[in-house]
Structure formats: structure tokens, C-alpha cells
Amino acid sequence: PELMIISYQPGGTKEDFDLEDSAQFENNDFRLPTLNAYVETDYPMAKKVKKLFAFEGGPEQLNQSVIFPLIFFRAPRIRAWRDNSLLVRDERKKMEKFSFEKVKEIIDEIHPKKILVLGIETFDQLQTILDPISRTEPIHTRTRGGARLMVRTKLLGYETLATIHPSGARISNTDFDKLRNSLQKWLRDEPSI
Fold first, then answer.
1. How far apart are CA 114 and CA 132, in angstroms?
2. Is 123 in contact with 162 (CB distance < 8 Å)?
3. Which of 58, 73, 36 has the alpha carbon at shortest distance from 183?
4. Fewest CB within 10 A of the end CB: N or C in the chain?
5. Over the stretch 34-60, which tens digit does the pLDDT of each residue have?
6. Hey, how many other C-beta atoms are within 10 angstroms of the C-beta on 143?
7. Could you tell me the end-to-end alpha-carbon distance of the chain, in angstroms, rounded to an integer?
8. In terms of Cα–Cα distance, which of 178, 175, 142, 148 is closest to 162?
9. CB neighbours of 40 closer than 8 A, spacing ≥ 6?
10. Residues paired with 162 in a beta bridge
């Protein structure tokens, strides 16, 4: 595929798992989904990602992309995953280590042309795992406050772009439009994004 999209973790509850994944996993089927969940669902995250790809040719690129999380295990919120209320720290670290090892395998197997990371913190963690010495170029910062909204680099030789988390961060319409326009240029290989 041309594009791989990596998010932090699937989110949701046991009910979401039962509805979406349990039948497949009970049959020992651990393949990546054949349908793009951002295209096929209307969860808040899916709506934001669709909005990010709302440009000419964007929906087709989103539909043809491969998506998966950096951490394969569900938690209702990132805070719940990290604050040890669901798991003791050692167990969480083992689960993260397992996921991180598989992420590199998946990238090497799929060999995408480009990687889009949803979430700057997700990107920082992915960079630490895969290629800690790669140089990062900030593309956009918040109109107010200066926090990173978009960065780019090469991770393991793959063109990589990361955006602030589409549904987990409040962002002005002006800043969101900047992200969408830069994503469009990056996907079209335009020299300046």
C-alpha cells in the first residue's frame, strides 16, 4: 500500500471488543482487518480522520490505506491505560513490549511508501522504538501556544508524517485546515508542505 496509518491504541471497552473482534480472535484469526475502520465506522475518531482526508483524492487514499495501532490492547482512555487502574505496571509494560516488537515486523512486512502517525505522543513513542536518532522537522505549531501540530521525518527510511491526535486534542479550524492542506501536499509528494 501507498499509506500506512498508525494510531495509539484501539480504545473502547470490553463491549466494543465483543462486538468488533472477539469472533475473529476466537477463531485464531489475528490478521489485520481487510476494511479500513476509519472509512467503515462513524466513531468520533473515524469522523475526524475522514475530515482530515476531505480533499480531492483523499477519501480514496484513506480507503486504500492500512491502519493499525501502536499498542494492540484496548483501554477506554489513554489515561486509564497509563495510570495502572486497569493493569499493574509490569503487565502493561510486557503488553507494550509485545506490541512494539510486532509493529516493526508489520511495517517491514507491509513496506508502505509513507507512514502517517495520528498523535504527536504516539509519534514520539514510535520514533523512540524504531529510529531514535532520526531528525524531526516541525511543520506546524499551534497558532496559540506553539505546541507541535505536525512533524515529519524518515523512520527506518519511510517518509513519515505525524499530526496532533485528531480526536484527542482541541484544535482550531484554522490549524486543522493547515494540517489537512499539508497532508494533501505530502501525499502528492509536493516539495513544500
1. 18
2. yes
3. 58
4. N
5. 678 888 888 888 899 999 999 999 999
6. 12
7. 22
8. 148
9. 46
10. 117, 151
CB 111 within 8 A of CB 154: no
Count other C-beta atoms under 10 Å from residue 141's C-beta.
16
The type of residue at 32 is: L
| pLDDT tens readout for residues 117-158 | 999 988 998 998 888 878 888 887 776 667 888 999 999 899
C-alpha cell at 163: 499530526
- Which pLDDT value is given to residue 193? 72
Predicted TM-score (pTM) of the model is: 0.82
Q: Distance between CA 138 and CA 115 in Å, rounded?
A: 16
Could you give the residue ranges of the DSSP H alpha helices within 21-147?
A: 22-26, 37-40, 44-52, 58-64, 78-82, 89-110, 120-130
Residue 48, all three cell numbers: 475526524
Beta carbons of 149 and 161 less than 8 angstroms apart: no
How many angstroms separate the most distant Cα atoms in the chain? 50
